[in-house]
Specification:
Layout: E1 3-7, H1 14-30, E2 34-37, H2 42-50, E3 55-56, H3 65-78, E4 83-86, H4 92-102, E5 106-111, H5 122-129, E6 133-136, H6 139-148, E7 156-158, H7 173-179, E8 187-192, H8 201-213, E9 218-223, H9 229-241, E10 248-252, H10 257-260, E11 266-269, H11 279-285, E12 289-293, H12 298-301, E13 309-311, H13 316-328, H14 330-347, H15 350-366
Parallel strand pairs: 1-2, 1-4, 2-3, 4-5, 5-6, 6-7, 8-9, 8-11, 9-10, 11-12, 12-13
Domain Glycosyl transferase family: 180-341
Keywords: Transferase
Organism: hydrothermal vent metagenome
């Protein structure tokens, strides 16, 4: 089975990181895949640093799709590719044309974004007639596919993201918190992700302002790349205006966030509407309580009141109420934490994810996709 992993995205996000994980898994457990990425992209940098061999298309694929697809078809024939794994939606047309021109290869497309309209026109019928396995990461996306796409149900697969089992090498949390100016005795809340308005760091700051006024000693760690300098400056201004510099800390980017998640009492995902929210099962498997937005795929991860808490999107007041419950009742917080870890270990393990992915790939070769 010869697999081509292709993603011509220039971005940095969940789908790019997922491609890296899949490529690494295939190399270690199945057979090294061929890799096709864009020049100058995050993926090129990542694979170069890991010593993974990769190839680039010599034309701008989305501007000249026919020429690019002919080049890709030649590549598919030359390397005798059996399966083309597409990660980026904008690459799907290119890969379908290449498959048609090459007259070989089955297409698996992992979809990580929601759908909003019916796609039963001639173009999309042609496109999805050539997709042999359509993989989605949430039940909501599965339902979207059934509703909006001209696909047979047997070709649609629900495959939750998987996260690795936490390392046995424990971070010295006391030292980590002290080094970053955080008080060991206070409830410590972390928010991970790119620092930009969409990720909702301002909601957590507003919630902590409310909690502080009520006398609760909550403290916050904001962890991630600053993507929007103006927004970051606004956050810093609000923290300074409310005299919370000692309670709310920006700790920058961390290259292994899972390793420090056990150092926090609560991890918050405040994105307005996240398709999945990988940080949540990562935190749950790490043994940390989670609070997330009641939108998108998050309610599939968090069973409200059982494995974590949900709050209304864009509602700092509701977030403050949920955090107050966890601050005031440590026993309740620990029950949620323990139940969340058991649930995440069962539903979101990386081991289980890749077993199911391998079954899908094997099914494509054998002709039985189920």
């Amino acid at each position: 089975m010869k697999i081509l992993e292709i993603c011509l995205s220039s971005g940095i996000g969940g789908l790019e990181l997922y491609m890296v994980k899949v490529t690494r898994f295939l190399a270690g457990h199945v057979k090294p895949a061929k890799v096709m990425i864009s020049k100058g992209s995050f993926l090129e940098k990542s694979f170069s640093e890991q010593g993974v061999n990769y190839d680039n298309l010599n034309v701008v694929a989305h501007h000249f799709p026919i020429i690019a697809s002919l080049q890709l078809a030649k590549y598919i024939r030359k390397n005798q590719i059996d399966i083309i794994h597409v990660h980026h939606g904008k690459d799907l047309f290119l890969c379908v044309l290449a498959r048609v021109f090459a007259r070989r290869g089955k297409i698996i497309y992992t979809r990580q974004m929601s759908l909003t309209r019916y796609k039963h026109d001639l173009y999309h019928k042609f496109l999805y007639r050539n997709v042999d396995a359509y993989v989605v990461i949430t039940q909501a996306l599965y339902d979207d596919a059934i509703k909006y796409l001209p696909l047979e149900k047997k070709n649609i697969h629900l495959l939750y993201y998987g996260v690795p089992k936490p390392s046995t090498d424990k971070t010295d949390c006391t030292r980590y918190l002290n080094d970053n100016g955080l008080n060991i005795g206070s409830t410590t809340i972390a928010i991970f992700g790119r620092v930009e308005e969409l990720k909702g760091q301002h909601l957590l700051i507003d919630a902590v302002i409310q909690l502080t006024k009520k006398g609760h000693e909550a403290q916050v760690a904001i962890i991630g790349h600053v993507m929007d300098e103006k927004y970051f400056s606004q956050l810093q201004g609000k923290i300074k205006e409310t005299n919370l510099e000692e309670r709310i800390k920006y700790l920058g980017f961390h290259n292994d966030p899972v390793s420090i998640m056990p150092c926090f009492d609560v991890v918050v995902l405040a994105t307005r509407c996240e398709t999945f929210g990988l940080v949540l099962p990562e935190a749950m498997r790490s043994g940390t309580c989670v609070v997330g937005t009641d939108c998108g795929g998050v309610p599939e991860i968090i069973k409200h009141g059982e494995t974590g808490l949900l709050f209304k999107p864009d509602d700092a007041d509701d977030l403050a109420e949920k955090l107050q419950l966890l601050i005031e009742d440590k026993d309740y917080r620990m029950r949620l934490t323990n139940a969340g870890k058991l649930d995440a270990d069962d539903r979101f393990s990386e081991e289980q994810h890749f077993d199911k992915l391998q079954n899908i790939l094997n099914g494509l070769i054998s002709g039985n996709e189920n």
